[in-house]
Amino acid sequence: xxQTPMTQAPVLAQGQSAxxxxxxxxxxxxxxxxxxxxxxxxSPIRVVNGVSFEVDAGGxxxxxxxxxxxxxxxxxxxxGLIPSPPGRIVEGRVEFEGTNLLEMQKARLPDIRGRDIxxxxxxxxxSLNPVMTIGDQIGEAIKLHExxxxxxxxxxxxxxxxxxxxxxxxxxxGAYPHQFSGGMRQRVxxxxxxxxxxxxxxxxxPTTALDVTIQAQVLELMHKIRRTLNTSILLISHDxxxxxxxxxxxxxxxxxxVVEEADVKSIFRNPSHPYTRGLLQSIPRLxxxxxxxxxxxxxxxxxxxxxxxxxxxxxxxxxxxxxxxxMPPMFAVSKSQRAACWVTAGANEGATAAVTAGVxxxxxxxxxxxx
Amino acid sequence: xxxxxxxxxxxxxxxxxxGDDFITVEGLGKxxxxxxxxxxxxxxxxxxxxxxxxxxxxETLALVGExxxxxxxxGRLLLRLIEASEGEVTVDGTxxxxxSQGDMRNMRAKMQMIFQDPYGSLSPRRSISQIIxxxxxxxxxxxSSRQRRERVAELxxxxxxxxxxxxxxPRQFSGGQRQRIGIARAISVNPQFIVADEPVSAxxxxxxxxxxxxxxxxxxxxxFSYLFIAHDLSVVRHIADRVAVMYLGRIVEIGPKARIYNAPSHPYTQALLSAxxxxxxxxxxxxxxxxxxxxxPANVPSGCSFHTRCPIAQDICKRERPKLAETATATATATxxxxxxxxxxxKPMPIPVG
Lengths: 371, 354
Description:
The complex is a heterodimer. By secondary structure, chain A is an alpha/beta fold. Chain A contains 16 helices and twelve strands. The radius of gyration of chain A is 21 Å and the shape is globular. The two termini of chain A are 33 Å apart. Chain B is an alpha/beta fold. Helix content of chain B is 30%, strand content 20%. In chain B, strand 7, helix 7 and strand 8 form a beta-alpha-beta unit.
């Protein structure tokens, strides 16, 4: 955190992206040009590189990517939970309701974290205290942020457990995490996360460790939370099925960068980045009749090994010479879709010019290069 | 005499046809008794209960179910990596349960295994060449070190890796590459049957496609059979010829892939399929949400073990355990035969959705 947010911040504020201009309201969460590095400062490894996206109040955004894409680190950075050392946020802004969380005093952060922004993780057991009853654990989350009498708190806990579908909630207040199944623990985690009616719920692979019938229950619960509490959701997942189920907008990450960002329908119907296309073609589907799966050749580059050009260059079926040299900025493909690809941009000549001002995820690549 | 029979089986020129039954499993079961460390009485867990099915030559039979349903245990019972409590497995005419340890070891030249965790299943201190050639040496299939290296090089290129990797160590490889190494090791002895236990579950989507394609290519060129154990129904849909669905240690439905996916006849299979989130925001299938969790396997419900979560359960389901029975009617076409379900009310799509 040595470098303060970049000098071009005012420019970015004016140059609203194409999406932002259509909806005047301020987004609930605005991540701008976020970069995270790990390792020694002399030879840092950049694992998140110029990431920008927004979550509207009441909206649901999914970040999808494979291991090493930087999706989890991005969500931890939003929560201010990057372990430091060895990690540090080297540039960017994380604006929550207009306040840059990265500039906020450390002491004030826990106020927002837990109350306004809550997080659930993949493995509920590692996030629950094994020697504390679940009633006490949920109560603690409430106690931290809200003044309530003991009776009021107890009522609230029972109400929360009921909301997340724990049978016989009064009877389970004194139970310990090990007495619950994986799916039930994830419900307890969600109860704890929504205890203070957060405005934003960040869920990092919330159903990955669960069986498919239990996953269906938890996804249903997430829909219910959104419906009843109007909580915005930022969902991190590798599973395109889960993303399609929960999210309205999708951010596709690859090797630390955002390569495409669009409404969920465009991502699945009209993917613009060759990586998004490859990813969608390589997943088997229930109604699949293909004898062979499409395979993206090669494998994801190790973090920080791509020094110049597009990180997908080596595996891309559509690459052109320019891709090896320059990282493409985000081009608008349509009003609600942007992709960081020279080839896609070339095919959409009309769009190209319209975008350059709105480049928010170019990650240091000179904007002038698009001309 | 035993060895003679095995030798004969290894060569592909035995006049046996693809599609013949290669493995027959009858009433296979495994009961684990809980250890009685602190003097507690300990309850028995029937991890696998009365499994009967066949695996044909050259086919892929997928075994699906949720965690704890016994699918991995069943896979291991077939190779006698775990000893069965009851039942019989017949492989190419040889009854496995009667074999001595030594004869069983020889039998394993025909039957290999691919594991889920490409990180945990390769010894970190042995070179790739040592890992891949170990089964070859155990079965005396290579005589000299030159021959060994040639064979390893050949195997590496067959699984899409460079032969120059031979002297490296597992830590130098990615998850997908390690899974290729595991596959090379399994196919080194020309097996006729491979148990693949969640082989692509730990892999990223783009790598998963590569491994699935590789496994299919190898099967096509070598003609072996897979028992493909998985929880991902989309992957199974892609790779399997037939599918068996397990719940609490029992096979509740088995049949040709098209029947299982298009006309699931056990309510559990139907619910399982409906729960898979479709990677398409515009097809919202009516999802059947099952109540509660899978019951404790140490305390399996009476009658049909699914009755506690089944939306269409009746009184009879609590009392009588339904038999795994043919679902096809008298007018069934050839493709519908061999579709069995263990439900008192078995019929295509038994749970009404609407």
